[in-house]
Amino acid sequence: MLNGERKIVRPLRWAMVGGGRLSQVGYKHRTGALRDNTAFQLVAGAFDIDPERGKDFGVNIGVEESRCYSDYKTMFNEEKKREDGIEVVSIATPNGTHHEICKAALEAGLHVVCEKPLFFTTEEVIEIKQLAEEKEKIVGVTYGFSGNQMLLQMRAMIEKGDIGDIRMVELQYTHGFSATDEADKYSAAQKWRVDPKIAGPSFVLGDLSTHTYYMSQLIMPDLKISKLLCDRQSFIESRAPLEDNAYVLMHFENGAVGRMWTSSVNAGCMDGHRIRIVGSKASLEWWDSKPGELSYEIQGKPAQTLIRAMPYLDESCNADERLGALHVEGLSDSWANIYLKFAIAIDAKDRGDQETLDNLVYPDINAGLEGVRWIENCVRSADQGSVWVDFEYEQKTHLL
Ligand code: NAI
């Protein structure tokens, strides 16, 4: 169980690029990183594309005015001159800026936490992975839902064989907020999401399904896709070639099959993030809307609901418990769990503690790489006319 006591010797000096006043995701980063004030301390930022608004915002959340910078390049240069300069930076800007900011941060000697989808291409991730290795730095990726401890419970039960052999993998991350094109016109956050120059080669495949895909890999680390078929649509035509809906069929190397449904036009849907794993003996199902519950259905027996924080859960699951039974946890706790692991990874890297790094389960740069690889394979299938394609892993050979 976590209670905020320090896991590393002192909090890391942390900054943000983006994540300012009008950003959707900035507060989630801060709520995660600053939950345990023993892990990170927010000391600087280039919070906004608009320097004045960024400075005003930074001061309002308690950052010293002189350390609220007009842009990330100035921040990296100025902070390098200080003895108490920043050690790690989080990048919470639109997709198309991640690669250049990440590269500049590593070159400035910083550890990095970056938003998903990490970059546009696997080549870019490989380049940054090599740079991070050279600089001996961590790159973490904020798959924000993946810190929910019930996912570790699923991982432990599947590993123990509680559901038998995996047969079907049902993944879904959908919502209905883009069912019309209204927000495409007035919302800055929606405008860039449907612009390939800023969003990259996909809309919902990158924006939504990379989360769920990573969570499936977290739960079933040995399951590998052998081929997939992706059918993607732009129901709002102006979004083409970027999809606002996609179905992906998957075949796995062990004979299992699966599907992912990802959509921003699932009209009326407020609760569309689900993972169901069907085995030869039983099934497990988790819904984001009830993050503290896990449905365990054994064939021929009454269905069970496993509840967070109970002693019957696996040790790995309860190790990430924060509030204890009877008290509701949610997305903020998930982010806090991920950020705590980023802090532990950074501290271990700085100390050269490879054993800690090898045993830590968290979304690192390989998780970012797999997300980008997933998008590339889906887009390749869709753009060839929604045909089955072999899932290309070949880049992995010179990586791992
Ligand atoms: P947004 O459009 O709401 O906010 C972007 C922010 O970045 C704004 O504050 C803007 O002023 C700032 N910005 C843009 N360029 C900048 C630059 N060069 N320097 C400094 N600040 C800059 O975007 P949103 O929705 O917050 O998404 C940002 C990133 O976070 C995207 O990559 C998105 O995919 C990801 N995201 C992840 C979520 C998660 O659960 N992990 C949830 C929502 C978004």
Automatic annotation (TrEMBL):
GO terms for molecular function: nucleotide binding. Gene3D superfamilies: Dihydrodipicolinate Reductase, domain 2, NAD(P)-binding Rossmann-like Domain. Residues 155-390 form the Gfo/Idh/MocA-like oxidoreductase C-terminal domain. It holds the Pfam family GFO_IDH_MocA. Residues 12-143 form the Gfo/Idh/MocA-like oxidoreductase N-terminal domain. InterPro entries: Gfo/Idh/MocA-like_OxRdtase_C, Gfo/Idh/MocA-like_OxRdtase_N, Gfo/Idh/MocA_oxidoreduct, NAD(P)-bd_dom_sf. Belongs to the Gfo/Idh/MocA family. This is Oxidoreductase. It comes from Halalkalibacter okhensis.
